[in-house]
Design goal:
Elements lengths: L2 H20 L10 H4 L25 E9 L10 E5 L18 E6 L37 E9 L2 E10 L4 E5 L5 E5 L2 E2 L6 E2 L13 H13 L4 E4 L6 H9 L3 E4 L25 H6 L7
Parallel strand pairs: 9-10, 10-11
Antiparallel strand pairs: 1-2, 1-3, 4-5, 6-7, 7-8
Helix pairs in contact: 3-4
Amino acid sequence: MSRTTVTILLALLSLAGFEAKAYKPAGNRIMTTWGENIDPSKVWQEYPRPIMERPDWENLNGLWQYAILEKDVPSPAEYQGDILVPFCAESALSGVGKEVGEKKVIWYKRMFTVPKSWRGRALAGETITINMPADVKLWSPDSPYLYDLEVSISSGGKTVDKVKSYAAMRKISTKKDGNGVVRLQLNNKDLFQYGPLDQGWWPDGLYTAPSYEAMVYDVDKTKEWGFNMIRKHVKIEPALWYTYCDRNGIIVWQDMPSSGSNPTWQPRNYFHGEELQRSPEKRNKWPYDIRP
């Protein structure tokens, strides 16, 4: 073997060793099995928006540069290290383990290339009405039937945009029984809904599960223990979590996440007070309300 070959091999080994040491979880907190085995180059590889899935996309999870600065600083003069996205800076899995706080902001930086074929592609949202057959299959925890959808837009005989999605036929309502007690119903039938108050908390990722497999394990255990519902408390989960519940027969009660300040107390004004107001962004993403 020539000296040149040996030198190149040593250089490659040195670089490999450097990359292996570049990331490690912060602090000495309790770690899950998934967190202990995390690979920073393969973090959360699943498509993040299954309700509108496109074939062309790029996953930007992984190591980014970060800087935690005072709010009035216009931009970082230099970055302070690497952070593993999508985990928050306070978590162990971020590799940072620092609190940002209300008086500071965190800056992220990463270089990536947008494929030439993507440039200039932007389509306005359109409302599409789909006629369903008369003998539709209803969704329930025992039979979580979903209709898979594929919607495409064509121009001049050429498909210019295409998304995959899904839909379920289900109705959640309330009805008084013979004794005047209000009962929850699914598809016009009484259904006793029971499940845990789930905060979606992880010791190593905090509000973000360490991996898709970890998220799935959590939901599967809930189903295995006999529950048909999860009341999601404190937070909103990634869209993947809701889709997995849809596909596996879990009803979701979504709490309003805390805004960090005390809300206005409006006793018994459940459906007409300020608490019902939703931002245009949230209404576009989740256009449906459940109310009597």
